Amino acid sequence: MKEHLAHAKDHLTIKELPVADRPREKLLEKGARNLTEAELLAIIIGMGPEGETAISLAQRLLKQLGKLAEVARADAAELQGVRGIGPAKACQILAAVELGRRCEFESGIRGTRLNSPAAVVERFKLKIGDSTSEQMLVAILDTKNQVIMEELYKGSANSSPVRIAELFKTAVRKGAMAVILAHNHPSGDPTPSPEDIEVTRQAVEAGRLLNIDVLDHVIVAGNKHLSFRERKLVFDH
């Protein structure tokens, strides 16, 4: 009997569900934190395929991909591998995930102190460690090695030319005392390329001219990392 009721409920439209079970109304009444992951996804998805609610589709999506973290890591093709998720719904989910990432990136930036290689690695792994494309991150620091702000650049030394002037533009404007560079290797191998080494050398030299210390350049590659300073690459003086 319970299975029959659940099956019937899945085939109702959102408007046909009791008001208390409608995710939008529930969010407005109780707040987003009181919704389940499936209900939040249902709001993003909007509607399910014919004969199925958006909530049921969201539940199938979570079940098929494994968990919410896997949904967040999925690309458009993987999302569309779930029956009922077409290009439009996949784009809606990807856009929501990216907004969440950008909010996380901007939150808690000021005041973080990067005073050890471990602190640098942990922070940069969080920011760019899971990216499937190469990105360069510049942390702009004050006299206490506290982060003033961070800037993310698409492309690293290997994927597109890095303009050294761009890396220091905000640091100069903010009167920064130091910067730390980081970029990721989606391949999983943190070994620096000749281009990585040359960009680091140019950055250190530019920093000396601008009186802005380049404290380190970290390569993040999944669970592996490489610190130029620890390896005494470029920073051997």
Question: What does it look like?
Answer:
The protein has helices at 2-10, 23-30, 37-45, 54-65, 68-73, 76-80, 87-106, 117-128, 164-173, 194-210, and strands spanning 135-141, 147-154, 178-184, 213-221, 224-227. It has 237 residues and is α+β, with helices and mostly antiparallel strands. The chain has two domains: 2-105, DNA polymerase, domain 1, CATH 1.10.150; 108-227, 3-Layer(aba) Sandwich (Cytidine Deaminase, domain 2), CATH 3.40.140. It has a five-stranded mixed sheet, sandwiched between helices. α9 runs parallel beside α10 (194-210). The longest helix has 20 residues, at 87-106. It is elongated and about 70 Å long. The termini are far apart.
What's the CATH class label of the largest domain? Alpha Beta
Q: What is the tally of helical segments?
A: 10
Distance between the termini: 76 Å
Helix content: 40-55%
CATH architecture of the largest domain: 3-Layer(aba) Sandwich
Rg over CA atoms, rounded to whole Å, is 23 Å
CATH superfamily of the largest domain: Cytidine Deaminase, domain 2
What is this structure, in a nutshell?
Helices cover 46% and strands 15% of the residues.
What labels would you give this structure?
DNA polymerase, domain 1, five-stranded mixed β-sheet, Cytidine Deaminase, domain 2, 15% strand, 2 domains, 10 helices, disordered N terminus
Write the layout of secondary structure elements.
Elements: H1 2-10, H2 23-30, H3 37-45, H4 54-65, H5 68-73, H6 76-80, H7 87-106, H8 117-128, E1 135-141, E2 147-154, H9 164-173, E3 178-184, H10 194-210, E4 213-221, E5 224-227
Parallel strand pairs: 3-4
Antiparallel strand pairs: 1-2, 1-3, 4-5
